[in-house]
Design a protein that fits this description.
Layout (H helix, E strand, L loop, with lengths): L5 H17 L7 E2 L7 E4 L2 E5 L12 H14 L15 H12 L3 E4 L2 H12 L5 E5 L4 H8 L8 E4 L4 H11 L6 E6 L11 H10 L3 E6 L14 H6 L6 E6 L9 E5 L2 H9 L3 H4 L5 H14 L3 H21 L13 E7 L1 H14 L1 E2 L1 E3 L9 E6 L6 H21 L4 H7 L17 E5 L7 H8 L7 H10 L11 E8 L5 E13 L6 H11 L7 E7 L9 E3 L6 H19 L3 E7 L6 H6 L3 E12 L6 H6 L3 H10 L7 E6 L4 H17 L11 H8 L3 E8 L6 E10 L3 E9 L4 H4 L1 H15 L4 E6 L2 H5 L4 E11 L3 H12 L1
Parallel strand pairs: 3-12, 5-6, 5-7, 7-8, 8-9, 18-20
Antiparallel strand pairs: 1-2, 2-3, 4-10, 9-10, 11-14, 13-14, 15-16, 16-17, 17-18, 17-19, 20-27, 21-26, 21-27, 22-23, 23-24, 24-25
């Protein structure tokens, strides 16, 4: 399987955004010669604006506009000096006003992203630890990761999971001075809250606990002087809290603000805070607009503005309560999220609402899990009550149409968000293929299975019978797999699609950087199942290749895709899988658009390697047919070593050799943290030793005939393909005997000797296999995760290793 590398992640985000852009719902440009806040022009059409983060509408307030224009006239478009040297003449008044709002010392920053980058490294000491809520804003996570260079540990917990937070506190309370928990006050996608009061109660129990709150989405529309949700919950800013607010968004101007009641910490941040020291200061227009807004915040008018917004929020909540729309979190914030589940349903729904005259935002990966795509609606004072009602009516009308048009239903959406459906969907009756599902290959017709899926890997009928025997009835959880065989047939019973799945326990870091896995393995010494999850996967961890037969020419080929994906959703839910994986696709697969639309992410896997041997009569003929460069490699790096060890091919090992090859395989697996999986059961090798379709290519020491230096475990798939499935090696003599290269060479010789037309050389070590003539083919997997927690946790850990 693939490693989730940083570039792999960025490529995935790029593909998701490109998909949304092509659907016409992202990277749009507003038109028109002016902007009111109530409407927004897109492609020449005026749409009612339900996508702003200016919840109070202050960005259109005449007083802010006038102040900004006068400041430009008096001071120019910018004041091009570092604020460490001298601030523009307006700054002092702004700082005094904002300080009066919060009742505590403040620091004004260019924006919240630069603010976090300046404050977090200054506030967190080398002997502290950071714990991130996994939904805390990217800008906070990114700034926290800067501390990896100082070896500050960074942990992550599931969203608002206070039991998990307490476990992390216990882990560090005896070794760290301060334990910083970083969270949003109001989360920008679902509009849900941080449990501030419960967190403060936890800090009374653990005095080391400090908080860093990003409350930019809670600012202005709630709280005394509009200082936001967190301070409203706190009542008083305590010394163990750093609070970030904003001077943009609802505040109506630009910039951000940090409030700090700890004098020592405030001086430390204020004196030298990275970007706070070196970045340009706010432009005069922004400072003046913020001053005008601060005056409003310090007056009784702010409460009238908050009341007017609350009336609109209440009206929207009331209107939604009369619908079946999947509102993901009901609260009193101005942010609402209507789930659509699949991205393509979200694209369809957003486009329908825009055609109806309403602009809303799409929530997509990585801000939310891909299968938790939805429509993010924000309410502002610009919105009129009749427009709010009209939006709800439009959503009621178009939501079921978007579902139907994208081949899904409301139940699937509710299940995607782990919500109980309010009513059961009535499926529209259409001609569709029939699905058959079996839990043993013995229930499948052997000839039919091999006709469609034989001849590759270890998953012909006999190979799967072997695997079922090995991976059932074992004592350890990871050694027991559930198999599902799926055949989707047309009305005549002809297969359109055939495949198989396994449910098995995977290490969550199987796709991660090897150094990350190395760190996690230390934790597994005490907890063997730390960071492990049940995964529903096409194929299994023992096999590789094209695990699916799909008749693309069939009239119902697309319907077969929908039937399979619906079945997978039910299986994932029923079996409790945390991730679903479809794997071993080519980059040009016709499944790509369908899978992206259904909430899968594509990641690159190690390349697949195969050797074609049709017409090759001997190993000498084969070597002569290699390129001149590869022949040189053979003569220099392989041929001299062939006489240093004894090669043997056996179908049944004596007991002493069997124990050795087990040990050699474990030695390879222990070093392969770039593909970190649980071990296989010991019974695997006993089954191999008794199965006539398996044989062992051994390298034995000339000096110690009973000593095995290396082994290739090879499977005969229907006489059509030779499969060197796994390798075992003694690493202490790896270079002395060129063990791996020898085993590759002897495998090719053995396949030619037995008349196989092809070798499936599997994944990994493509560089070595290519030098012996293997053809390399890129392979991709599609992942659908239960949530983003594991991906983000591994990302944080990768940043530290």
């Amino acid at each position: 399987m693939a490693k989730i590398k940083h570039h792999n992640f960025l490529n995935t985000v790029h593909e998701v955004f490109t998909d949304a852009k092509n659907a016409g719902v992202l990277h749009l440009y507003a038109g028109g010669n002016s902007f009111s806040g109530r409407t927004i022009e897109i492609d020449g059409r005026e749409l009612y604006h339900f996508g702003t983060t200016g919840y109070l509408g202050l960005e259109q307030d005449p007083r802010l506009k006038k102040a900004a224009m006068e400041a430009i006239d008096r001071y120019g478009t910018q004041f091009p000096l570092s604020k460490s040297y001298i601030s523009n003449p307006l700054y002092s008044e702004l700082e005094d006003s904002v300080k009066k709002m919060f009742g505590h010392p403040i620091v004004i920053t260019k924006n919240s992203t630069l603010g976090h980058m300046g404050v977090i490294p200054s506030a967190v000491d080398d002997d502290d630890v950071i714990i991130l809520d996994h939904q805390v804003h990217w800008s906070v996570q990114n700034a926290a990761k800067m501390l990896k260079t100082r070896s500050v540990p960074i942990e992550m917990i599931r969203h608002n999971h206070l039991e998990m937070l307490e476990d992390k506190i216990k882990k560090y309370r005896d070794s760290k001075r301060h334990i910083w928990y970083m969270a949003d006050g109001i989360y920008s996608m679902y509009g849900d809250y941080a449990p501030v009061k419960d967190l403060m109660a936890l800090s009374k129990k653990y005095p080391q606990l400090h908080f860093y709150f990003d409350d930019v989405h809670g600012m202005s529309w709630v709280g005394k002087n509009g200082t936001g949700y967190v301070l409203d919950q706190l009542g008083e800013l305590t010394e163990n809290v750093l609070l970030f607010g904003t001077l943009s968004k609802t505040f109506g101007a630009s910039g951000a603000v940090l409030a700090c009641s700890n004098p020592r910490l405030y001086d430390k941040i204020k004196t030298f805070g990275g970007p706070l020291t070196f970045s340009a200061q706010l432009e005069p227009a922004s400072v003046a607009a913020a001053m005008a807004s601060a005056r409003i915040h310090l007056s009784p008018e702010i409460y009238e503005l908050q009341r007017e917004l609350r009336e609109r929020i209440d009206h929207f909540n009331s209107s939604l309560s009369d619908t079946e729309l999947p509102l993901i979190d009901q609260n009193e914030s101005p942010v609402f999220y209507i789930g659509t589940g699949m991205p393509k349903t979200g694209y369809n729904f957003v486009n329908r609402l825009m055609r109806e005259g309403f602009f809303v935002n799409l929530g997509i990966f990585p801000a939310v899990p891909v299968k938790n795509t939805g429509v993010r609606i924000t309410i502002s004072r610009h919105n009129q009550f009749k427009e709010i009602r009209a939006l709800v009516e439009a959503m009621k009308h178009h939501f079921p149409k978007a579902l139907e048009e994208t081949h899904t239903n409301a139940e699937r959406v509710f299940h995607a968000f782990k919500l109980e459906p309010r009513t059961r969907s009535v499926q529209k009756v259409v001609d569709r293929p029939k699905i058959q599902v079996f839990d043993s290959i013995g229930q499948m017709d052997r000839e039919e299975w091999n006709r469609y899926l034989g001849g590759q890997g270890v998953y012909d009928w006999d190979g799967l019978k072997f695997l079922e025997g090995v991976f059932q009835g074992n004592t350890k959880r990871e050694h027991n797999w559930s198999f599902r065989y799926v055949v989707i047939r047309d009305e005549s019973g002809v297969p359109i699609l055939t495949t198989f799945f396994t449910l098995s326990l995977w290490k969550d870091d199987m796709l991660a950087n090897a150094k990350v896995s190395q760190a996690i393995e230390l934790e597994r010494r005490n907890d063997p199942y730390h960071l492990s999850s049940q995964v529903l996967s096409m194929g299994c961890l023992f096999t590789e290749g094209g695990h699916m037969y799909w008749d693309t020419s069939h009239k119902w080929s697309e319907r077969a895709q929908h039937v399979l994906l619906e079945w997978m959703e039910v299986q994932e839910r029923t079996l409790g899988a945390k991730m679903t994986v479809l794997r071993d696709f080519s980059k040009e697969t016709l499944w790509n658009d369908m899978l992206y639309g259904h909430g899968f992410l594509r990641v690159r896997m190690p390349s697949s390697c195969a050797v074609q041997l049709k017409g090759v009569e001997s190993i000498e003929t084969y070597v002569d047919g290699l390129s001149s460069r590869n022949r040189r490699h053979y003569r220099k790096d392989i041929q001299p070593f062939l006489v240093r060890a004894n090669k043997q091919v056996v179908t049944k090992l004596p007991a002493s050799h069997l124990e050795q090859v087990k040990s050699l395989f474990e030695e390879v697996q222990a070093r392969n943290l770039g593909l970190n999986t649980f071990s296989f059961p010991d019974a695997l090798f006993d089954w191999m030793n008794e199965d006539p379709l398996w044989e062992f290519i051994l390298l034995e020491s000339l000096d110690e005939p009973d000593r095995v230096l290396g082994v290739m475990f090879c499977y005969n798939n229907t006489g059509k393909v030779y499969v060197p499935a796994f390798v075992g090696m003694d690493y202490s003599v790896l270079e002395e005997y060129a063990t791996y290269r020898q085993l590759l060479y002897w495998t090719i010789e053995r396949a030619i000797e037995r008349g196989f037309p092809k070798i499936d050389f599997g994944m990994t070590a493509a560089f070595e296999k290519r030098k012996l003539g293997a053809a390399i083919q890129d392979r991709y997997a599609y992942l659908q995760t239960d949530d983003n927690y594991i991906l983000e946790l591994l990302g944080v850990m990768e940043g530290q290793h």
